[in-house]
Amino acid sequence: MDILIKTLQVLFALSILILIHELGHFLFSRLFKIRVDKFYLFFDPWFSLFKYKPKNSDTEYGMGWLPLGGYCKISGMIDESLDTEMLKNEPKPWEFRSKPAWQRFFVMFGGVFFNFLLAILIYSSVLYAWGEEYLRNSDAVYGIQTNDLSRELGFKNGDRILYFDGKPIERFQDLQISLARNQAKEATVIRGGDTVTVPIDQ
Hints:
Layout: H1 2-31, E1 36-43, E2 50-52, E3 60-63, E4 66-74, H2 101-130, H3 148-153, E5 160-164, E6 167-168, H4 175-182, E7 186-191, E8 194-199
Parallel strand pairs: 1-3
Antiparallel strand pairs: 1-4, 2-3, 5-6, 5-7, 7-8
Helix pairs in contact: 1-2
C-alpha cells in the first residue's frame, strides 16, 4: 500500500510540473495568436485515456496513458511528434514558423519560465506557512558551552548571554557572528542566577 501511495504522489507531483510547463507554451502561443492543435498531459502513443475538443476551438485537450511527460502541439512547429507535413505548404498566419523570432523565443521559453514561477510560488508558500525555525536566545536556558577562545574572552560554561554592548541578541546561533561583526566590548550575561558584565578583551 505504501508503494502505491508513493507512486501516486510522484505521479501527482509530476502532473503538476508537466501541466505548468506546457501551460507556459500554450499561453504564450495563444498570446501571439498561434494555433495549438493539442494540449496533453502524458504521452498518448496509439490511444489516449481522455480527449475533448470544445466547439469552436482548434485545440484538442486530453490525457495520455504514458506518464513520461506531456506536450503542447503547436501548429507550424516540429516537435516530439516529428510531424513535417506542414512544411510542404506555405506558412499560414497562425503558424509558429510565420511569427517573428522574438515571439518564437517566448513560446519556447514559456515552459521553463512558468516552472520558474512555480518554484518561487512553492518556496514562498512554504516560507509563509512554516517560516524559518531557529532557537531564540531567550529560550537557551542552559546557556553556552565554551571553548578555549571563549574562556579567554571571559565566558564560562552555562553563561546565558543577554546583550553585547547593550544590544539584545534574538537568535542563539547568531551569538558568535554578532560578537565578531560588532566587535563588542562587553557582554551582559546571567551566571549562576546573577546578572554580570563580562568585559571582552579581543
